[in-house]
Write a structure and sequence with these properties.
Elements: H1 16-32, H2 45-54, H3 61-79, H4 89-100, H5 105-124, H6 151-164
Length: 165
């Protein structure tokens, strides 16, 4: 079979029927514009993550530092050498579940956001056909326990500020 770039690709199958089914699926992907060269998906997660981190020049420095720390401390030790095309939904869910045993739900959610962004970047660069982050179940995050002041309390506060100024 020829790839969209015209180069011939070969693969071995157990039966002629299996080969025909594979060819039909690949041709359908090509017709929908979803065909991904499998060799491109062999790029390590660490390489894609580094490219993603540097891809947004408008990112605030504090955000860049936080994202870099999340990658270095939490994502690269787990996914770093793994080819981006080999990361699947179950490996993402396993990472979330493992991460949730040692980190607060908000931290897990924030760190997962970095993973999701890197995988979306890989999808945009046609390194993968679908993101493995879809359908991931995250730990429940408790709402912030804060007190909203009432109009009366606000009036008292405003009056107190007027008295000092």
């Amino acid at each position: 079979m020829r790839a969209p770039d015209g180069k011939e690709r070969s693969r071995t199958f157990r039966s002629k029927r299996e080969a025909k089914d594979y060819e039909a699926a690949e041709l359908a992907k090509r017709a929908r514009g979803e065909w991904i060269d499998p060799r491109r998906s062999n790029i390590a997660f660490a390489e894609v993550a580094a490219e993603w981190l540097e891809s947004n020049p408008a990112k605030r420095e504090s955000t860049w530092v936080r994202d870099e720390g999340t990658l270095r401390l939490h994502l690269l030790p787990y996914f770093g050498p793994v080819p981006v095309g080999r990361i699947d939904r179950s490996s993402v869910q396993r990472w979330v579940n493992q991460h949730a045993t040692t980190h607060a739900p908000r931290t897990v959610k924030r760190d997962y956001g970095v993973l999701r962004a890197v995988m979306a970047f890989a999808l945009e660069r046609d390194l993968i056909g679908r993101t493995p982050c879809r359908g991931t179940r995250l730990p429940a995050v408790d709402p912030v326990d804060g007190h909203l002041i009432s109009a009366a309390e606000l009036a008292v506060l405003a009056e107190a500020l007027d008295d000092t100024g």
